[in-house]
Amino acid sequence: MGGASDLTVADLAALGVRRISLGSGLARSAWGGFIRAAERIASAGRFDGLSGAVPVARLNRFFRDDLRRRSS
């Protein structure tokens, strides 16, 4: 799943898919947001491209919870 799709995980499972690979899809999605925000700052001097930024506390919680899941 390297790009946007209307298929869900459940749809793929119903088709017999047992493993879903994203390749660089998540990283390219993140870089897309980065580039859009940077271009908005460079072209218009505006910071509204940062409106979807994840709060640091949520990032910390995400990685902490992931570490706990993998450790148990």
* Backbone CA Rg: 17 Å
Name the shape in a single word. Answer: flat
What is the helix/strand order? HHH
> Which structural category do the helix and sheet elements fall into?
mainly alpha
Helix content: 55-70%
Per DSSP, the total helix count is 3
Spans of at least 5 consecutive residues with low confidence: none
- Major sheet characteristics: none
Gap from first CA to last CA? 29 Å
Number of domains: 1
> Got a strand count?
0
Round the mean pLDDT to the nearest integer and report it.
95
- What amount of the residues lies in strands? under 5%
Describe the structure.
The structure is a single chain. This protein is mainly α and 72 residues long. The chain has one domain (9-71). The chain is 58% helix and 0% strand. The protein contains 3 helices and no strands. The protein has helices spanning 9-14, 25-44, 56-71. The protein is flat, with a radius of gyration of 17 Å. It starts with 8 loop residues before the first helix and ends with a helix.
List keywords for this structure.
about 70 residues
Q: Nutshell version of this structure?
A:
This protein is mostly helical and 72 residues long. 58% of the residues lie in helices and 0% in strands.
Describe the secondary structure blueprint for this structure.
Blueprint: H1 9-14, H2 25-44, H3 56-71
